[in-house]
């Protein structure tokens, strides 16, 4: 009798351990789904941009794959509810995940002839569809295994889906706040595939019926551990974007994107999510982007200026030029990796000012210091930080300016035509705060290019001639700048521009055409 009780107790303990292991399996696979989705955005970012198109494609593929997995998993569970088959699905998902960082560059380049939105959707389906379908099969299959008694079907189903969803929440936080910034995108794929690989041998080792079987799978466990360690140790961050003849000298993943520094001849670029953000001539240290010199006109409008605020450091080109005019410059940059690259590879120094690592809107809102100039030159790749382009944001900036202070804003878009609605809206929003606003287009009005807005409470009249600039190349740009002024007063009503507010600010979605065009231009000069 005692022996029978001990056997029954042992069986109950075993079943309890199996139940908890099943919960752990659902938690891990739920986490894997969200980790994959976030990894997808970071994997595709350097090639396609971190835009609404990317998230729409990834969310669509994720939901479609999970729906197919739920249906298929339920059908297979009804036919043959076998635990080993469940873990085989997970093992196969790990193999597909392992293949993503290995084959994605080849696939993305092979589909480069397609329109960029079509290309990103096909890539998302091919790369992420198979593992997500297999992961979607797990929960309905687990429900079948865990509910032999139909009287508790609702309770058990709700419990298992809750565990899976909790795992998804954990995976989202873990990947975004810890794994990707610390290890990079490629290695997180490998870690994830390793974790899924090991579930099956771990289950067999813990619950296998025969000792010989356990011993075999213990070796199986060790083999895959060794394989994963070799992959992780030999893998290096991949160059996700490059120009012909260019070589990367620095790469890093941060909370905000993939940061790179690359050299080509005498030029050096800072890239964010595959988009060249800033560039300098290594011989002179000057920016190779002409629009950055447009902000220098502020010094000729207000030659008595003593200090400036620059939101969006990049390589530090704008801040350095203001320093060359003798100004004390405070620079604000949200990404510490960008600041690190600017200091180490672009010779940025704070001089008499300071460098603040924080969101520009938060810094401006809490600022007690008054500035002669403020420059808003912030972007993450081709993604526009909409919260900085609103009525409330511009009002906060106006409070941080002196009475005759000047605000300069850089926006990449179209200055005319049907796609000029965002630039018109920025103009109208600035006019709500500043009586005087001038607009300069770095390229011709119908082309995509940098649009510079200068806004002030005082008339924007030159008090010193740009001809006095002692650098011939910059002097030429400043003199020609007046010829590129755009008069928005007569066209804002025709383009559908609005005053942008925190409550209603669709500038990111309106800017998708410009972002897509910019990304296409960049892709055309990739290898």
Radius of gyration over C-alpha positions, nearest whole angstrom: 28 Å
Low-confidence stretches: 236-241
- Strand numbers in spatial order across the main sheet: 7-6-5-8-9-11-10-12
The CATH topology of the largest domain is given as Rossmann fold
**Which shape, going by the Cα principal axes?**
elongated
- The proportion of residues in beta strands is 5-15%
Treating each run of at least 4 consecutive H or I residues as one helix, how many helices?
18
Give the secondary structure arrangement, pairings included.
Layout: H1 2-48, H2 52-79, H3 83-110, H4 116-136, H5 138-146, H6 153-183, H7 185-207, H8 211-234, E1 247-253, E2 258-264, E3 267-272, E4 275-281, H9 297-301, E5 307-311, H10 317-324, E6 328-333, H11 336-345, E7 355-357, H12 360-366, E8 371-376, H13 391-400, E9 401-414, H14 421-433, E10 436-441, E11 448-456, H15 472-481, E12 485-486, H16 492-495, H17 507-510, H18 512-523
Parallel strand pairs: 5-6, 5-8, 6-7, 8-9
Antiparallel strand pairs: 1-2, 2-3, 3-4, 9-11, 10-11, 10-12
Helix pairs in contact: 1-2, 1-3, 1-4, 1-5, 1-6, 1-7, 2-4, 2-5, 3-4, 3-5, 3-7, 5-6, 6-7, 7-8, 13-14
Summarize the structure.
The protein has 527 residues and is an alpha/beta fold. 56% of the residues lie in helices and 15% in strands.
Word description of this protein:
- It is a single chain.
- With 527 residues, the chain is an alpha/beta fold.
- It has two domains: 2-234; 289-523, Vaccinia Virus protein VP39 (Rossmann fold, 3-Layer(aba) Sandwich), CATH 3.40.50.
- Helices cover 56% and strands 15% of the residues.
- The protein has 18 helices and twelve strands.
- The chain has helices at residues 2-48, 52-79, 83-110, 116-136, 138-146, 153-183, 185-207, 211-234, 297-301, 317-324, 336-345, 360-366, 391-400, 421-433, 472-481, 492-495, 507-510, 512-523; strands at residues 247-253, 258-264, 267-272, 275-281, 307-311, 328-333, 355-357, 371-376, 401-414, 436-441, 448-456, 485-486.
